[in-house]
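hey can u check if this looks right to u? its 71 residues, i copy pasted from the old doc so theres a chance i mangled smth
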Amino acid sequence: MGTFWAEAQCAMCRTQVVNNVSQGDTSLAAGLNTGILYLFFTPYVAIAVVAYFWYKNAKVNEPKRTYSRTS
């Protein structure tokens, strides 16, 4: 049931965008595209920020580590 509802929403959004663009108003289409790009890039930016701080923290703590060889 959820799949059909989601497909209906996509069709409704597409119809609304097509109607607005055919009347010469492209602001809704531009806003929808910006929203899609925002949702696409947000997880990658969050992962990059976490990776940066993890790397930075690992570099700071590197001298504290002791490597002992027992041969």
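The CA atoms of residues 48 and 54 lie 10 Å apart.
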